[in-house]
Protein 1
Amino acid sequence: MNAVLTIAQTTFREALRRRVLNIILVFAVVSIGASRLFSWLSPGEEIKFILDMCSNSIRFFSMLIAVLLGASMIPTEIERRTIFSILSKPVGRTQFMLGKYLGALLTLLVNVAIMSALFLLVLFFKDKDRGYLLNPTLWKGILLVLVEVGVLLAIAVAVSTVASTAFNVVFSFFVYFTGQMGGVFKELSAPTHVTSPAVRVLMGLIYNLLPHFENFDLRQPLLLGDPVPLVFMGKVIGGAVLYIGVVLAVGHLLFAQREF
Amino acid sequence: MRGRWVRLVVLLVALGLLVPLAFVQNSIDEDRFLYGLGEPLPYWRISQLGVQGVTGAIIGAVMGGFRGVAADMLWLKCDEYFHSGQWFKLLPIAQTIVMLDPHFIDVWTVTGWHMAYNMYHEAESRGDWEGQVSWFNRGVNWLVRGFAENPDSSDLVYNIGWTLFDRMDRYPEAVQWLTKTLRTEAPPQQTGRFIAHAYEWTPDTERALEWYYRVLRMNPQDNTAIGATITLKLRYAHAWRLMEEGKLDQAYKEVYEWLKGGNPDQVYRIGWHLVATIAERQGKYDLALKWWERDANQEALDELARRRIFDLRQKLGLPPWQRKWPGLKASPLIQE
């Protein structure tokens, strides 16, 4: 366990020094800060525009950080050959992968926290009656962003055990965007839309295997003021933890097979 | 050897976990729908879009959570098309916007109005009655679709009622939608007054007065309601009562004398509608037809008169009505 935590700590420190990630964070901060300037796009509904743009900025930029960070995790270590010196010590491959995952997750937590703090600050000055600021859906939404990028990060880290950074970035983006359209795959697996049984089976497989990223998006209830039941939150978080477990298990199998 | 077994167990556990995972994900999708927490992009919606619409939908999906911002940007594009007169280009984009953000109320209301008014007039300028009616129906259907997506929106349900009332004089339907508006959270202040107007023009003087009284109870300073109440009581309420009591000749005479008396209301729609309605109840269909036709020739947008003309001409076995104005074809609503 100590080895896992030590690797996580080192990964976190390294990630904080990575220029690309810091630039993305700057873009996120600019996007969130500028949301107030662009709120004229929705006259009369400026707060809703700010909520929409800020929550989506957090989601989008966190996703970018998760993919870029997760995809380069292990390939970079192999390129630098640092992996050999680490694995020559009493550290298993699984411990190494878990440490990398936890370190990256901690980095994401810090990034999401910074973006959320700025978002709440922007909202604080606009939302005079604090109706949105004190809305639990807002906080639940931020929590689900973190859980969502945790799932995406697990996929990127698992794939990074066998694939190059470039391939992994493309693959992770593909999974993320495809995962936004779970409903389409569900409908395509129904006989009313597609007659070919083979295509239907394929669509059903994609639907059941892909993470349904749209379920982490609480923008609509936030904007409409609808409550989000705790049962729903529990299921989404529970499902995500299960998914992360499965993906990291697959990552462990792939990493164990890999020969350097 | 041991490592291989461990890997096999891990593989089996991972595969085994996929089954409950699929159940959990399915269940979350259902909950999302059940709790109204948002809907994914359904296939049928995408398949209904044109080329421009599909592009927008893909961009929206690729943008993931940025659908709302994308919808705002597209709405600006709509505004640009609108002001540059490229009205047909506006519609596929509006489709895309409501697919990306079905709760963008302005897009529903403005596009519905655009179809029922601008596109309607565009068809009218070509003398295309079928086009006019088609655009009107598309506008109303669009608003109804918007209302189905946003059942709490006062604006949408009000706009449906208003469009039926103002554009096609479909008063009974307008009253239904406007009454529904009053059950929403923030109905526009003038809703009650328009219900009264709709009854006034139906004509149903008694109900019109009843609604004007309701409006005045809410806002005693409503000058329109004050004026309308005075007009109705002074000119038509008595005749209406006579008609309800079956004293049709007396009722007819009273309103007709008023209208004939050279007063400034010579073209007042309510009076002529009332006269024609009484004549119909008297069974004097020729006379009723004469007044409806007078009204339809007098007021280009009086769809109620046109519909009555169609019914009466059929009843009397007369050929289709020819509007006095040249160059305009008749509405397919009245099958001329």
Note: Chain A is about 75% helix and 0% strand.
Protein 2
Amino acid sequence: MDEIGAVSAAKEALAAGIDPYVAITGGLSKGMAIVSDKYETGVYFVPEILLCADAMYAAIGVLRPHLKLEKQAGSLPVIIGVIEGDIHDIGKNIVKLMLDAAGLTVHDLGNDVAVSAFVEKARELQSGIIAVSTLMSTTMAGMGRLIEALKNEGLRDSFKVMIGGGPLSASFARKIGADAYGANAMEGVRIATAWQEALR
Amino acid sequence: MTARVSPKERIGRFLSGQPTDFVPCVPLILNHSARVLGVKVSRYATDGETMGRANVAAYRRYGQDLITIFTDTCIVAEAMGTTLHFPDDDVARVKTPVVAEPGDAAKLRRVDVHTAGRLPVYLGAIRHCVSEVGDEVFVSCCIPAPFSNAAALRGTATLARDLYKNPGLAHALLEKSLEVINDMSEAIAQAGGIPVLVDPVASGSVLSRKTFEEFAMPYLKRALGKIKSLGMVPILHICGKTASIVDLMAKTGAAALSLDQIELADAVERTGGAVCLMGTVRPAETLLGGTPETVRQEAARCLASGKRNPGGFILSSGCEVPIETPPANVDALIAAARA
């Protein structure tokens, strides 16, 4: 949870000649796995996760300029966002953080995201995972519209769609034709990584 | 057969520990009232008479045991300077928190609740309901508890970080919130209503037990104490998951706890029967997405567990009845309590 500590550890790693890729996968990702554990077992809650996220992103900011960019072959990009009409994005940000930490490529569209914006991004990426959330019962219907729009664009079969958030359920996911429902952030990440594995 | 018991009589008897004909049923019919009257939520949320008429219309339509006036959890923060966005037909939300920078906390005033922001909308709505149907049903009004209000003053994620990085600021915002909330409780009581505290941001889905104890509970105790001092029954609603904090909620001074994502049997055990429990029919899954039959089934499960609570039980929805809930599902919930 210590942002300053994370930044100085990242700088020390660079100074010691540690490969920044190793610093991320062997250091930060392992740290975030501990964070995930603590979240799942009810030790960490939203405030603690937010501070860990700040620390991780600050350290990545230090390491990133030194990374030799290698694209991960065959990895599914994840499009993530809160459906239109809703701005509650803390849960979405936690899922994004966990996906980042798990090494997936995440395209974050933010909150109050129009169905057309999801579709546009999907068209650009051609295949991958779409993760969409809401905390409100009034905006749930937008998720069904997203699935319909993907079908109309001929993109539905190229994307796995998962949904999450307070008022949702597995039966709602089935009803609108989503591929999965994540009851919490960690389940969402497990689903996404399982889809990733299945692809390999 | 006795004469038809009014909701006011039923709740009155219930709260004074006397036997009642049926288990009281109080679905949290809030913005859904706008649908019953046939107005958009933005109009309902900004005009006291409309809000009052909508709540009367909903009461006449459903006959629930308590009117619960409410539209959003940001209304007190708005009166204190936070700006909101009003969708045409959905609930208002925070646009710009008033305490964007820590130094902005100095700007916070103990505003006059009779004139600030939309607080008069609530007071007008209460007066309208009391004058129309106050002889047969109690009228309550839900206002945010200090922690949820502080989140709307500062932004939820920012306040969450403050808890560790600037706890002094968090406590200052909570103190300021408490002052205005207590004034509002008094104004609600004067208008003939019962103040109810709602604290969704202090949910066990968001905060650890330790954080709840440090930042939410002390202020809940004081805000509920104020309501008690007004001669009212203090009611506390916290939605989301609450198993980790429900025993603490029972020690805040609340006489009744309105709960959402928790097994009632578990809640009874954790609170030791010390307080009245309300809940927990699932709002989206069952009320919005279900049928009268699935509502009946879930209500029956809640009743079976709730009736075992020595502190009493009120059948209710876990959280707000979704705006687009089919009216037949609300009817089914109330009918389940009166079967």
Note: The interface with chain A takes residues 87, 90-91, 93-94, 156-157, 160-161, 163-165, 205-208, 211, 240, 244, 283-285, 288-289, 320, 322-324 of chain B (CB under 8 Å).
